[in-house]
Design a protein that fits this description.
- The protein is mainly alpha-helical.
- The chain is 69% helix and 0% strand.
- Helix 2 runs parallel beside helix 5, helix 3 packs antiparallel against helix 8 and helix 11 packs antiparallel against helix 19.
- The protein is globular.
């Protein structure tokens, strides 16, 4: 049988799953554009007496009397909302399909981002509410994407697919570097309108290209569909079931993953929230340069993530090491080395560009998370990968609003690099300690509760919780 090849199926000989992976990347890109634009936009929104002098040389638009605590409140608002839905995002995607769960989140996030400037005022509550709503919408995205990865990715391509979930880092890089310049010339309101417009466009392409599974895709060839389904074997079930809650929460490997993921998200969210402020306040860069330099660490994490993912896939293909050995060994790069870099920052305070380089290397090495915490939920339970990721993301997200509070606490009386050093020390500890916990208790094998057996009383009860 001859199959017609649509431009949406192949670009040359590129398979449909590659197009889907690109859209997973772009979904993350979009989510982070609407999520991190506030980190740059908030700097020129603060009145002169509360802002850094390098960020107030021009008229960027209305300014507001926001204290340090107000700023941490706004920056952390997203994560309050994120907590509410990230726990259930995987269950929703497994039940209703990742395509709509992620697609609707992007659509409404674009709308909320576009109207945010109308809620800015000296009273932080209105803009805080918009950030909470964005968090509620964003909480379902990554669990939904992990659900799609479990359906679309052959095991030997898993590292590349999970690397696609680093698209948010490019979203951060583009947002910070672009908005730093745009706000400099056109004011901070465009820092909301532009990400909103881009998000609407990407959402349109999402609905054209993505399906919940190869079996649901209208333009995939039977050859590629059969290849994906056979490669997944029995690990991924077609039956939709509620997750085995008791088994999950009594699983030691699951807790090892949860702790590891928390450490990774602490380092990531801390830099997502605080890097532009650190660049302007402690290192005294102007707004445009701060936006560009603050984008370097996420860019390094993105590039390193693809590199580590490719190396990990190669090791799996060659059966050089077992999955558990790969996961644990890559923790050295994803957690231990980044923590050590953070510890060294105070020693390098004599050169602010060297400090930026070390921060960039720290988050860059964390790109190895594509082979550790970002992929381990796929190992433990492919049928419930979205659910597992939703749970660990729910816990990990608390770092998103705790880290701004810690930054505000340590920099309340000053914002030199010596006040910031305490923040970096905390970050180093939260990076390194979880890695050692995972070294001891982590696992890379499919757990028995991935396929609850009807003749097992406990699993039967779990399945219906």
């Amino acid at each position: 049988m001859v199959h017609k090849v649509s431009p949406l199926n192949y670009f040359g000989n590129i398979p449909v799953r590659f197009n889907v992976a690109i859209m997973l990347f772009m979904a993350c890109f979009t989510t982070y554009m609407t999520r991190t634009n506030i980190s740059i936009a908030i700097i020129p929104m603060i009145k002169e007496e509360s802002a850094n002098r390098t960020a107030i040389a021009h008229d960027y638009g209305p300014r507001y009397s926001w204290s340090k605590k107000d700023q941490s409140f706004i920056l952390g608002g997203f994560f309050y909302g994120y907590l509410l839905t990230s726990l259930f995002g995987g269950v929703l995607a497994e039940r209703f399909g990742g395509r709509h769960v992620v697609g609707l989140s992007m659509l409404f996030s674009a709308f909320i981002t576009g109207i945010t400037p109308y809620f800015a005022a000296d009273n932080v509550i209105p803009i805080f509410i918009t950030r909470v709503i964005l968090g509620i919408l964003g909480g379902v995205v990554y669990p939904g994407l992990h659900c799609l990865v479990s359906k679309w990715s052959p095991p030997e391509e898993k590292g590349k697919f999970v690397s696609a979930l680093l698209g948010g880092l490019l979203g951060t890089v583009v947002t910070w570097s672009m908005l730093g310049v745009i706000i400099e010339y056109y004011g901070w309101k465009l820092g909301f309108y532009l990400p909103s417009a881009i998000a609407f466009i990407i959402t349109l392409f999402w609905y054209i290209i993505v399906a919940d599974s190869p079996a649901d895709h209208p333009r995939i060839t039977s050859f590629e569909r059969d290849y994906i389904q056979k490669s997944l074997g029995d690990a991924v079930s077609k039956e939709k079931r509620l997750p085995p809650v008791v088994s999950i929460f009594t699983s030691i490997p699951f807790y090892a993953l949860l702790v590891l993921h928390y450490g990774s998200l602490w380092g990531l969210f801390f830099l997502m929230n605080a890097a532009p402020l650190f660049m302007t306040q402690a290192l005294n860069f102007n707004l445009a340069k701060a936006g560009f330099l603050a984008a370097l660490p996420p860019l390094a994490r993105l590039l390193a993530g693809f590199a580590f993912g490719a190396v990990g896939d190669y090791l799996r293909r060659k059966n050089t090491f077992g999955v558990t050995t790969i996961r644990k060994s890559f923790c050295l790069f994803s957690h231990v080395i980044p923590g050590l870099f953070l510890l060294s920052i105070t020693l390098l305070a004599f050169d602010k560009y060297l400090v930026v380089a070390v921060i960039t290397l720290s988050l860059g090495f964390n790109g190895a998370a594509t082979m550790t915490n970002l992929q381990n939920s796929q190992d433990l339970a492919p049928n419930f990968a979205g659910t597992l990721y939703g749970i660990i993301n729910f816990v990990g997200t608390t770092s998103g609003f705790i880290s701004p509070i810690i930054v505000a606490y340590f920099t309340e009386d000053g914002h030199s690099i010596y006040e910031w050093q305490h923040v970096f020390w905390v970050g180093a500890a939260v990076y390194i300690a979880p890695a050692f916990f995972y070294f001891i208790f982590g696992d890379g094998h499919v757990q028995k509760w991935n396929e609850p057996k009807s003749n097992n009383k406990k699993d039967a009860i779990d399945t219906h919780l």
